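Objective 1b: paired records.
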Amino acid sequence: MNEATRLVFVTLSIPAPLSLEAAHAAVVALAGLSRQPQIVIEALGNNRHVRWRIGTPVRHRHQVIEVLRTHLPGLVVDEPKPLAPGPRADVAAKIRVRSRSVVEGSLAHESTESVTRGVLGALAVAGRHERVHLQVILGPRKTPQLPPQQLRGGDRTLAVAKLREFRFGCAIRVAATAADDDRARHLAERVIAAVRGLNAPTAQLTATRMATTSFDRARAPWFWTTTLSVSEVVALTAWPIAHRDAAPLPGVPSRHPKLLPASASTLKEGRTVGVSTAQPERPIAISVRDSLSGIAITGPTGVGKSNLLGQFALADIAAGRGLVVIDPKGDLIDDILQRADESRLDDIAVVDATDSAPIGINGLVGATDPDLAADTTLGVFHSLWADAWGPRTQDVLHASLLTLARRGDASIAMLPLLLTNPGFRRSIVGRVAREDPMGLGGFWAWWESLSDNEQAQATAPLLRRVRPILLRPGLRGILGQRRPKFDLSDVFTKRRILLVSLEKGKIGPEAAALLGSLIVSQLWTATLARAAQSPQSRHPVTILIDEVQDYLRLPGDIGDALAQARGLGVGYTLAHQHLGQLPKSIREAVTANARTRIAFQLSHPDAREFASLTSGQLEPADFETLPAFHAYAQILHQNTPGPWVSVTTTKMPDPVRSAASIRRRSRERYGQPLSEVEADLLSLTERRTVRESFGRTKRSDTEGGTS
């Protein structure tokens, strides 16, 4: 056998239920192929499931597959493979049609759907280590023709029924393998019994034992003793033929979730999303460049969302890219630390509010534009505390943040001191008042003129929010560092890896929201600084944010910011549990600017929303019935959204070290002991303050006036 005629097989994932009309059209099309290639149709039962394969000579493979794809909507075909060497069965039988009339009678193909159900049930009996096959080999074709003139009456009617369709010379075989021959024979006999449901008064199916060799190699018989019409072949394929509203077929995957194969445009290399659910050996990936256009991941707890984020992070680390991960709980951070590439461990900085020597985050120092740093921080506070925000709060907080930022070595933890400690305040504002007498100088002069009561009323809404957070030592340790050892801009300039473990369950959701939002906003400031670099020097940086609705608080329009980030070489991967969590501004921004979408199992409202985005490819039930670690993805390719594809995410590799060892390494390199941070803050109140008078004299409380 030369290479061109060598048989190769592909596995078919046929969407169920398949209409009888579609199956009939597919077999008619096979009959019409030029050169009449030999075609092997197999149904295989194993582990209570049924699969289908089709074999064809190498040179006809593409032709046959295209015919099937044309007529079987949603068909998924895997990579072609030759038959495995060696035996495939312990017992085998061949089935022939015995005609009981002077002309070839037809099998009862009008019973195709009921017989198919029975055959599938028999195939699905096979257990985990058992296999049972139904094999139909299609040989020489015969075109439709009129019956001989001499036939009359019933014989003519029978002949018309058979001869009006294309016909094939066929070989029908059943084979099985099991722990012992008796069990294998039992499996084969069940399939033969189910096939006999096609027996008709003028045509009977008979089975006899045969050597397994011909089945194993799918060899054509020496003589084609059985001739079947297209309708009869369809009845013997065991394809999942049923009415749309019929009960589920045995051994056949449920109609939902629907399998969507990967298109030719879907990459196999890049940032790996997973593998094709329909073609398990086919990777699904997105290019680094297209990742910069944003990735949105939706799915509730427990479906595999964090696992996918971890895979993305590990890939970025291994590729040497700058990376930030914002994790509300901390489990994902530990997963990454346990598996990160050994060569990047010194690049890792772990921010953790429960650490005894935390890494500091200070957006008020190190910025090239202190006023921008103050405005960015103000925007975070306003976004978090909009319900308690008024004109006076805006005025006081803006001036306070500007004052601290212009000092050059202040931190947010100094905010309560600035507003409540007159001596400390005078030591801070003296210089900035002299440098900006019309702005901050005027504000602080007005502030000093207020009575203690008026100052308390003006600061009460703000301090009610800030103090409870700063009462937590861990938060003070992070936000109180005036000179942090880690610079967030290093993520962009030195390809550092920043892992933020917010530990929401330990420090509280409000404190976690403040810390996470401050970090994200400061990253945005560092992103904008990339505009001064040439496009060629902007290596890709990834920012992964879980529970994005709690931490994405950027100045201005979020959609514009995400679009601008793409041009600056920064890609956001944004994850959340359901659409209802997203404020309108974030939802619109994510929809417009996260151009790769990945959806795990969804609730009905979200499933309905996502199904509407698939142009009819999917129904809400498809999203609702996804198992854990399975998803649908629409992946951007060369700036064009691709078709939706079924994805199975791969689990992260096994841990290779303890997370604690890398946390310790990060702490030693970038952290500051909490005791030192607090001693530094305490020293600010103990220093001899500068007694420098400026502005008007403060009124006493008895002089009247309220804020």
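Objective 1b, second protein:
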Amino acid sequence: MYIRSNVYQLFMQQYPDAHFVTVYHENGRVSEIASGKREGKVEVVFVGTYEATGCLVVESRITEDPWGLPETLCSAGPMHYYSMGAERAMTHANSPICTKR
């Protein structure tokens, strides 16, 4: 269970069906990355980073053009939004990602 901010609450109000990917950082922090879709297009990417205890480090949203983010499947399975969110998560956590779930 993570301590959440209003960034998360607003994201979930707008995108209640968002799919989250959890990533674990080498320093013990955990990040969650999710895309918010409307009419099949990604409008926003949510990134939340938390201490292993569940305490909030930071939550943010990534937005681009009004047409939505490009969502391209890659062979590893995650979509384009994942790599954008992963970059932000590593910045939030100040640590590389060691595993994802």
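The chain has one domain: 6-100. Helices lie at 6-14, 80-93.
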